[in-house]
Design goal:
5 helices; 7 strands; seven-stranded mixed β-sheet
């Protein structure tokens, strides 16, 4: 379990570009030809975690927990299974907000603008990995945990439009229209088209 030890504004926060530059270098703990992990060491935040491939599925959860290369948590194991079942050869886990917190109720109360900018840059990079990016919305009802999270989703949707992203969900949506969280999905779950613009307009 990861409980934040401080606000992200109080940690040694790297912007995405220098964090990516470091993450692309050879690493002692994992194979960078197989894994994308930004930052490349365990921090109070995580921009990206995924596997390398020609056709990645980008999955957006609410916020990262404890997963690292070679030691995925149950949520990311589910993400990988669903991605492979739907014809993708890899996955990249992105998040609405990049602060690590196993329990979303432990997320900071106020948005850190610098962390949010880094997170949007990370999502743009992930989108650039495919000529036809596919994005799986998977943040569940947890989007209601903090008042800044809906705006973060709207910013991600705007970034996705610039790259021509197609959006999907898996599993039933909530009564309020929120996409299903990946954790308890069957491994043979099928992706459904998702109108992210209509969703964002109702947030």
């Amino acid at each position: 379990m990861h409980i934040p030890s401080c606000l992200t504004a109080e940690t040694a926060l790297l912007d995405f570009a220098p964090a990516l530059e470091e993450a692309l270098l050879p690493q002692p703990d994992y194979d960078v030809s197989k894994w994308l992990y930004v930052p490349h060491t365990y921090q109070e935040y995580r921009y990206l975690l995924g596997t390398r491939g020609e056709r990645p599925l980008l999955c957006i959860g609410v916020n990262p927990s404890t997963a690292v290369p070679g030691d995925l948590d149950n949520t990311l194991k589910s993400v990988e299974r669903v991605a492979l079942h739907n014809g993708f050869d890899s996955f990249v886990m992105c998040n609405v907000y990049a602060q690590r917190a196993t329990r979303p109720k432990d997320m900071e109360r106020e948005l850190n603008p610098r962390l949010h900018r880094g997170n949007l840059a990370a999502f743009a990079y992930a989108l650039s990995l495919s000529p036809a990016p596919a994005v799986w919305a998977a943040w569940g009802n947890i989007i209601e945990q903090r008042p800044y999270l809906p705006r973060c989703v709207q910013d991600l949707a705007e970034t996705g439009r610039a790259y021509g992203a197609r959006w999907f969900t898996a599993g039933p949506r909530s009564k309020r229209g929120h996409p299903h969280h990946p954790l308890y999905l069957r491994k043979d779950s099928v992706l459904d088209e998702f109108d992210v613009d209509a969703y964002c307009s109702a947030l």
